[in-house]
Specification:
Length: 319
């Protein structure tokens, strides 16, 4: 079999990236792309590549994943992550995690060491203990400050909790999403995807978003490609968005056409709620895709043709 040219694409979340946060975000996605690509360059697997790329962003502090995760309405962190292997269609995910340093590593353990796909809360914590996963408090000063600001606006009474999205719509500056994800193609022609998040700011305790749900926030299938989503999780869940992107690729679209079509679909079908979405993808031919309807999406990619990762705060904006 002829070797494929390895490719990695990573994102650090859709939303509005404030100028003062932009540089750390861009540096973070570049570091992640480099780490993931180095694994591919040495002949490593797409699964290892996306896991390590996501772990770099979980450790960074600039993103809403791992260290630096956003806080829920009760000022608690509940992290979640998933990973999928496009060769075997094996997948793993974990959610409602309080202090696992790298949720994506636990997702991979669920995928490879258990018969299950999604393990949450106490059970997930037990599994992490069995496999000696590192712990770290994910709380940062920055997220605590954001939490105070977000809650203040909420308590001013202009918005009610079930209408959190209206709050976000009116104050996007306080609701940077910043979930992280990665997709890759390795030399053997296998694709993989991974996503990790602290979830939506001010979410209710126990809320599970798209990021740990296979098909919604993460999907990978060698017959199509791989996709990681960011944005309002409830939208990605309704449209099974990552799988939809892979279906579009399987139907003959390139990765770029597929992510643009999926964002168009979001725009057409989801009109009654705050709508801010971003997608990255790679197809089985190694073509990459990135599109969003939010003002920004922090992302980067690296291929053998270029020496350094290319990073940007915008990709194709589909309105
Ligand atoms: N999709 C994530 C969630 O809804 C948020 C994000 O992408 O930043 O939990």
């Amino acid at each position: 079999m002829t070797e494929k040219k390895p490719v990695i694409v990573v994102h650090g979340g859709a939303g509005t990236w404030q100028p003062e946060r932009s540089q750390p975000g861009l540096e973070g996605v570049k570091r992640a792309a480099k780490t993931g690509f180095e694994i591919l360059r040495k002949g490593g697997s797409a699964v290892d590549s996306v896991m390590e790329a996501v772990a770099v962003m979980e450790d960074d502090g600039a993103f809403n994943a791992g260290y630096g995760s956003t806080l829920n309405i009760e000022k608690q962190v509940e992290m979640e992550a998933s990973i999928m292997n496009g060769k075997t269609l094996q997948a793993g995910a974990a959610s409602l995690l309080k202090d696992i340093k790298n949720p994506v590593r636990l997702a991979k353990i669920v995928m490879e060491k258990t018969d299950h796909i999604l393990v949450v809360g106490e059970g997930a914590e037990k599994l992490a203990k069995i496999f000696n996963l590192e712990r770290r408090s994910p709380m940062t000063e920055l997220r605590l400050k954001y939490h105070e600001q977000q809650k203040k606006i909420l308590l001013e009474g202009k918005f009610e909790l079930p209408k959190l999205y209206n709050l976000v719509k009116n104050h996007p500056e306080f609701f940077e999403l910043e979930t992280v994800g990665a997709v890759a193609l390795d030399k053997d022609g296998n694709v993989a995807a991974a996503t990790s998040t602290g979830g939506f700011p001010l979410k209710l305790p126990g809320r599970i978003g798209d990021s740990p749900l296979i098909g919604c926030g993460t999907y990978a299938d060698n017959q199509a490609g791989a996709c990681s989503a960011t944005g309002v999780g409830e939208i990605a869940i309704r449209l099974v968005l990552a799988k939809t992107v892979c279906n579009f690729i399987e139907d003959g679209k390139t990765a770029q056409e597929a992510v643009e079509s999926a964002i168009s679909l979001v725009n057409k079908r989801i009109t009654a709620t705050y709508n801010s979405m971003g997608l990255i993808a790679v197809d089985a031919h190694g073509r990459i895709g990135a599109a969003h309807n939010s003002p920004n999406m922090c992302w980067a990619y690296l291929t053998p043709e270029i020496k350094e990762p290319v990073a940007s705060l915008t990709a194709k904006i589909v309105k």
